[in-house]
Write a structure and sequence with these properties.
single chain; five-stranded antiparallel sheet; 5 strands; alpha+beta; globular; about 150 residues
Length: about 150
């Protein structure tokens, strides 16, 4: 669902729950006033492949489920030499940069939903910004199963 590479049968793993909890807490603390003021919350999604780490941060309205979310998906290559937690930490940093800019200027923006390349402190990564509700996409994927990968 989050990978920038075409996948057929390879099933992703999730990052450890303690990592996800840590990053969820960081986001909620950093954006506490923005989130409470706008009645929004972050949904965090992760996928871990042998050669790629993917994070999806979906900013959803907690009061109006029909409102469009803002979703930031990040992908970076993973090698045997890469420490996954350090890599994820840096990817979260890139998400914070994006959401800092987003909350500073919340005009309705239409996003071009294509992978773009970025770099942060020497780390090459890829990102995509969309209005996709990742929770709904995940639920659809779970319902449809392996015959209809999303």
């Amino acid at each position: 669902m989050l990978s920038r590479h075409p996948r057929t049968t390879e099933r992703p793993k999730s990052l450890p729950a303690e990592w996800m909890d840590k990053f969820q807490k960081v986001l909620e603390e950093q954006y506490a006033s923005d989130l409470s003021h706008t009645n929004r919350k972050f949904d965090l999604f992760t996928e871990l492949y042998p050669n790629e780490v993917c994070l999806g941060l979906c900013l959803n309205s907690s009061k109006m489920p029909s409102s469009l979310p803002t979703t930031y998906i990040i992908s970076a290559d993973l090698s045997e030499k890469t420490e996954p937690l350090e890599l994820v930490d840096r990817l979260v940093d890139s998400a914070e940069i994006f959401f800092d800019q987003f909350f500073a200027n919340e005009d309705e923006v239409e996003y071009t939903v294509v992978w773009q390349e970025g770099e942060l402190r020497g780390l090459k990564f890829f990102y995509m910004i969309s209005r996709e509700n990742l929770r709904l996409s995940q639920e659809a994927s779970d319902l449809l199963g392996d015959d209809f990968p999303i």
